[in-house]
Automatic annotation (TrEMBL):
Keywords in alphabetical order: Glycosyltransferase, Transferase
Protein source organism: Setomelanomma holmii
Lineage: Eukaryota, Fungi, Dikarya, Ascomycota, Pezizomycotina
Protein name, as recorded: Glycolipid 2-alpha-mannosyltransferase
Active site: E288 (nucleophile)
InterPro entries for the chain: Glyco_trans_15 (IPR002685), Nucleotide-diphossugar_trans (IPR029044)
Amino acid sequence: MAGSQRYMRYIVFALFALIVFYFISSSSVPSASWPAYGESTTPSTPNAAVTAVTAATPHSSTTPNEKTLPPATISGDRMNATFVTLARNSDIWEIAKSIRHVEDRFNRKFNYDWVFLNDDDFDDEFKKITTALVSGKTKYGKIPKEHWSFPEWIDQDKAAKVREEMKEKKIIYGDSVSYRHMCRYESGFFFRHPLMLDYEWYWRVEPSVELYCDINYDTFKFMAEKKKKYSFTLSLYEYVDTIPTLWDATKNFTKHYPQHIAKNNAMKFLSDDGGETYNHCHFWSNFEIGNLNWLRSQAYIDFFTSLDKAGGFFYERWGDAPVHSIAAGLMLNKDEIHFFNDIAYYHVPFTHCPTGEQYRIDHKCSCNPKDNFDWNGYSCTSRFYEMNGMEKPAGYEKEQ
């Protein structure tokens, strides 16, 4: 009996202790009121502690982004322009990277079209992925065989011998047939493709390129308003062994077509002796924004045709970059050529990172200015500045 009484006292004592503990805890610590998912984060009956926190912190628990994000599109008229890419089905993942860079940094704000060209048919995977990535319309074209083959006047045996010699000399792409077809096509035919005839302006994009800064204005409209016809971001000296007779072919052209040479041309960018010899400077054509009507002009067609007949695309390894550059340098006024310092660009192995710290900060650039190629001794961009009497960007000395 005594044991039962003690047992009951323990139960009563324990119960009393629990009541006291609950009273103390509930009177000093407010209970949390967690909202269900999707409900308001403000309790319907806030207690004193919650009210105090709310009064001290006027904003919600998540810090708002006070910066206004750019709209998906920028208002205003669009130019008759397109991106253009020469690619094969096997390039899909490399071109996907390029598209993401272009869309994220520029085209999601403008929604320009994209033309893809191939010497074969594009497969369904290529079309599906690129269409999903591009904000504008996508168009897919096959290159006519006559634009991607040896012209009838080329001596096949001679061309094969040249490729073998270049292979022995370890000249990059020296033994490649497809690379030569590509250079010839980019030099003289891409702007004549039926899909490209719908447009007046183009921006050339290749697989595996990167853009490092936001571009918040319409580059095509800029070109038109400033009366520019050709532009670049990188320039350098061409591999001499790939173009030993290109300048001779050029001088033959200027001799027969003097009417096509602009009076205020950019010869000083191309030659150090008034045109007697070529200094091998050229604009790197894997990035170009240009005017298609200029490329379709009689002057440019005559220039390309004269080079094509000379055979240097196959008997040597003439690239489209020096061809475009020489054409622009001779047939355009020098003020019709534009250097896009503000378009941060990479194509292996060179980087153009805009000179000017404040610009890089304002435009969310992710490139390292130490990687900038512009003021490197192998770059020709200084020549472009000097030819035009332009002052080099502040801070360029630190990037030399």
